């Protein structure tokens, strides 16, 4: 065997391609967080840790402990780390510390793909798929159970704090370590830490239930507009009834004056009811008050969570999501935007099991990444499945060349299917898709985006390792970065000889 470990691998090996690409990345966001005054221990070079992550993730190794083990027995890892064993806690802290900087790598790798002319923007497709969170379905709790958990944790924390204070006072009084009939009071600190963590997660889960009960901005706008129409209608009806009754009162007063002038008394009939006692007007005023109260509630909604709504105590940001093959899983709704050859333009975690409200955020994120990566050309066609059909989305994205199935994907693609009537507000999209050109363009959707998910799940699996929205977002961004990175190196000629 050669004495130099760098001579053990051929020039076309993955580790050399990783190192070549890392040299092209701007790592200033990582490096500026380290002190350069000579104090403290020497940190691992960020380029080395990033190359190690890209290399191991490309091989499907995502666990920090398995990456640490690979630094022993994987020659590529030994070359990248210069024969140093990187501890798993070092990797975990690096990922946690540099989440924002790691997210920026997605755009940088996408930019490299664009500069090599690999990103074809003639058509892109949006799709979503569930992925399992690092949480258990059994950890879901209803609001009442969460309140009980919060109360119980607070009681136990209070009791432990009292024990700690009593222990400290007894030690101070005796001048030595107090002896008890059980464990030392200092042993309660790990339990106290776990209880505080559980209490924080229970509070977060309760907050998530209230947030999810809130209607979306689009729903609020629709309800406010409907309430404003009802208020305007009630005001108009009240004004009409009041004007008609006022006319009656005027006519009666005119007849009374005419009869008095003519000397006729008692021939005026029964006088009309006063304005404030007229039944129709009282009813209309009551209705107007109710409509205005409805409008106020629509503008400032304060809905309570459903008694059946649940949040996960392990990872409050995760949701119960319908699985692809039936049933439910505890996870996240991952959204991707794919160009041709499955280059990812965006990858995000959507906070709703439904795709309906994900289209606008994904389009905006894709446009942001397109501009940040300075990809040449504009996106010529956007494609999305029937799960994204929404009149609000169509209105907001009216200036885009967008095709979204509004009935069924099979029907819009031109395959035999049961005809369905397009919902209100979606007829224009249905008419566009009904043309031969629209059908031909929409047939590209599945071939663009569905292999993208297949490739991601085949390499990384269908599970996440981190918990919490920010950590999950950084993790899936890293998965997307590695996905595009492997597309890049498969189209990059080898430089080593």
Provide a descriptive summary of the structure in words.
The relative contact order is 0.14. The protein is of the alpha/beta class. Helices cover about 55% and strands about 10% of the residues. Helix 7 packs parallel to helix 18 (about 470-490). The protein has 4 domains: about 5-95, no CATH class; about 115-135 and about 320-480, no CATH class; about 140-215; about 220-300. It has helices at about 15-25, 30, 45-60, 65-75, 75-80, 90-95, 100-115, 145-175, 190-215, 215-260, 280-300, 360-370, 390-395, 410, 425-435, 435-440, 445-460, 470-490; strands at about 125-130, 140, 310, 320, 330-340, 345-350, 380-385, 400-405. The longest helix is centred in the middle third of the chain and has 46 residues, at about 215-260. Strands 1, 4, 5, 6, 7 and 8 form a 6-stranded mixed β-sheet that branches. The chain has a two-stranded antiparallel sheet with strand order 2-3. The protein is flat. InterPro entries: Tnp_DDE_dom, Transposase_InsH_N. Keywords: Coiled coil. It comes from Streptomyces canus. This is Transposase.
Quick recap:
This protein has helices spanning 14-23, 28-31, 46-58, 64-73, 75-80, 88-97, 99-115, 143-174, 188-213, 217-262, 279-299, 359-372, 391-396, 409-412, 427-433, 436-442, 445-460, 469-489, and strands spanning 124-132, 140-142, 310-312, 319-322, 328-338, 344-350, 382-384, 402-404. By secondary structure, the protein is of the alpha/beta class.
């Amino acid at each position: 065997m050669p004495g130099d470990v760098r001579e053990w691998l051929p020039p076309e090996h993955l580790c050399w391609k990783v190192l070549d690409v890392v040299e092209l990345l701007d790592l200033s966001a990582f490096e500026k967080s380290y002190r350069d005054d000579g104090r403290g221990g020497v940190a691992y070079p960020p380029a080395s840790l990033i190359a190690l992550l890209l290399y191991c993730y490309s091989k499907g190794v995502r666990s920090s402990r398995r990456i640490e083990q690979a630094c022993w027995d994987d020659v590529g890892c030994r070359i990248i780390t210069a024969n140093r064993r990187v501890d798993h806690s070092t990797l975990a802290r690096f990922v946690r510390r540099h989440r924002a900087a790691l997210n920026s790598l997605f755009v940088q790798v996408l930019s490299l793909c664009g500069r090599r002319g690999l990103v074809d923007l003639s058509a892109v497709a949006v799709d979503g798929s569930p992925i399992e969170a690092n949480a258990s379905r059994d950890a879901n709790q209803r609001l009442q159970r969460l309140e009980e958990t919060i109360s119980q944790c607070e009681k136990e924390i209070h009791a432990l704090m009292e024990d700690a204070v009593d222990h400290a006072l007894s030690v101070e009084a005796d001048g030595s370590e107090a002896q008890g009939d059980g464990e030392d009071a200092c042993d309660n600190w790990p339990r106290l830490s776990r209880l505080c963590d559980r209490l924080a997660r229970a509070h977060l889960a309760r907050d998530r239930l209230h947030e999810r009960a809130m209607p979306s901005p689009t729903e609020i706008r629709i309800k406010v507009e409907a309430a404003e129409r009802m208020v305007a209608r009630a005001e108009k009806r009240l004004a009409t009834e009041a004007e008609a009754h006022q006319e009656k009162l005027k006519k009666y007063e005119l007849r009374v004056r005419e009869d008095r002038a003519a000397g006729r008394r008692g021939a005026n009939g029964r006088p009309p009811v006063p304005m404030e006692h007229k039944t129709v007007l009282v009813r209309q005023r009551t209705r107007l008050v109710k409509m205005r109260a409805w409008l106020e509630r629509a503008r400032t909604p304060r809905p309570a969570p459903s008694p059946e709504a649940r949040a996960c105590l392990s990872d409050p940001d995760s949701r119960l999501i319908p699985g692809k093959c039936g049933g439910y899983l505890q996870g996240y709704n991952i959204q991707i935007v794919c160009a041709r050859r499955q280059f990812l333009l965006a990858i995000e975690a959507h906070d709703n099991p439904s795709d309906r409200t994900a289209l606008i955020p994904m389009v905006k994120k894709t446009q942001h990444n397109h501009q940040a990566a300075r990809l040449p050309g504009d996106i010529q066609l956007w494609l999305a499945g029937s799960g994204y059909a929404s009149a609000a989305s169509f209105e907001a994205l009216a200036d885009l060349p967008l095709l979204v199935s509004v009935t069924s994907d099979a029907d819009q693609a031109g395959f035999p299917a049961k005809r369905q009537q397009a919902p209100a507000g979606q007829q224009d999209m249905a008419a566009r898709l009904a043309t031969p050109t629209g059908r031909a363009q929409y047939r590209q959707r599945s071939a663009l985006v569905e292999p993208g998910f297949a490739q991601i799940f085949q390499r990384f699996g269908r599970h996440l390792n981190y918990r919490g929205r920010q950590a999950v977002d950084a993790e899936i961004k890293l998965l997307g970065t590695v996905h595009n990175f492997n597309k890049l190196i498969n189209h990059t000629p080898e430089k080593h000889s």
